[in-house]
Write a structure and sequence with these properties.
2 strands, mainly alpha, 65 residues, 3 helices
Length: 65
């Protein structure tokens, strides 16, 4: 019996991440600029999926009385 010493490598697609300033300057999120300015942290980077999740979570939140 031969052992296969090659390890299976799963290639994950690279996800682009952007910092807060790049996101705020983008055309894609121009209609949500004010909201994203509050939600995003200065020292973190976000993917498009993370941004959409943050926006959805905020928009579905309940209003506090």
């Amino acid at each position: 019996m031969e052992e296969n010493n090659e390890t299976a490598t799963e290639e994950t697609p690279s996800v682009f991440k952007f910092d807060k300033q790049q996101i705020l300057k983008s055309e894609k999120y121009s209609n949500r600029r004010d909201l994203l300015n509050v939600l995003l942290k200065n020292d973190e980077q976000y993917s498009h999926e993370e941004i959409i999740t943050l926006i959805d979570k905020f928009m579905k939140g309940k209003v506090k009385k």
